[in-house]
Amino acid sequence: MTKKPFVGQSAIANGLLDLIYTDVCGPLSISARGGFSYFITFTDDHSRYGYIYLMRYKSEAFGRFKEYRLEVENQTNRKIKALRSDRGGEYLSGEFIDYLKENEILSQWTPPGTPQLNGVAERRNRTLLGMMPYEIWHGKPASYKYLRVWGSPAYVKRLVGDKLDSRSSLCRFIGYPKETAGYYFYDPAEQKIFVSKDAVFLEKGFSLDSRHDEVLIEESNEEPHRDTTTSFEPHRVPDRYGFVGLTSQLDNDPKTYGEAMSDIDLDKWLEAMKSEMDSMGSNQVWTLVDLPKGARPVGCKWVYKRKLGADGEVTAFKARLVAKGYTQRPGVDFEETYSPVAMAKSIRILLGIAAWYDYEIW
């Protein structure tokens, strides 16, 4: 006997909080900070606006729903009328059912084997089409100005008492606090997490190293059954594509002095520039003189390069101060050119002449 096809489409609720979809996912293979291995979602059917709460255990679902209800009802001045879920044990507890009855919230449980009736919650983490849920919920378009690349480095302003101490620390962005404006940062030097608004993010050229392919399997509360549809194997990205990410990172050296000063390896570049200046001073590369009348000085620029070893790891940071010879104009800034390097062909000719006439080379 095969399962009957699901036909028809349920009507969307007329107003905010008329119907709330909920679902629990987990346990995840990797726990979040704090030991959270489950999460529960609540999605408004009318706006598709959703909330996500982390949980250590599935039994925390009741507490998370009470927290969600108090927040959204206070924000919208409306009451939750119905809650739709699957038949998971976390939704069938006596205290959960009694709480819904006391607050006049209709509980709707989907029949076993019909996840499509709770499809909004099942697909909460998928990309939603059409108008943004945020715009329906708040009545205005969302702003992306505060969004940052997770894990990106940032210089965060420090509250220091000594004027000689560093006024910023290089930290990592790890999230957003719910209770206040700002960002969560992790300071690897002090091994602590804190909130701050004053930060300069270094997102340009930053990329995360993805070393493992994790497959998220959502927990099912249905009875086991034989699937009649065509099966498929989970697709894993071939290892060869990892070199695409590697080659994209090889050309991320700073192009200008400004980029070097905002790079995550700022201290290494400063050390490399100091080494270059010390070398030029000890080798007497230049002599300071007055600029001749009518002459135009040639500018200079820094060239930066990370030297890689055989294993692809950075072994050294090089900085070279070079002249901008390309800014000179022929006939205006110079008449002749000179190269101190002889061509191999010229050297062979001279050696041949010396051998023919038995000249001494010294």
From TrEMBL:
Keywords, sorted A to Z: Hydrolase, Metal-binding
Q: Name the Pfam families for this protein.
A: rve (PF00665), RVT_2 (PF07727), SH3_retrovirus (PF25597)
* Keyword Hydrolase attached: yes
Q: Which GO terms describe its biological process?
A: DNA integration
Residue ranges of domain Integrase catalytic in the record: 1-128
Q: Which SUPFAM superfamilies match?
A: Ribonuclease H-like
Molecular function (GO) terms for this protein are: hydrolase activity; metal ion binding; nucleic acid binding
Tell me if Hydrolase is a UniProt keyword of this record. Answer: yes
Protein name in the entry: Retrovirus-related Pol polyprotein from transposon TNT 1-94
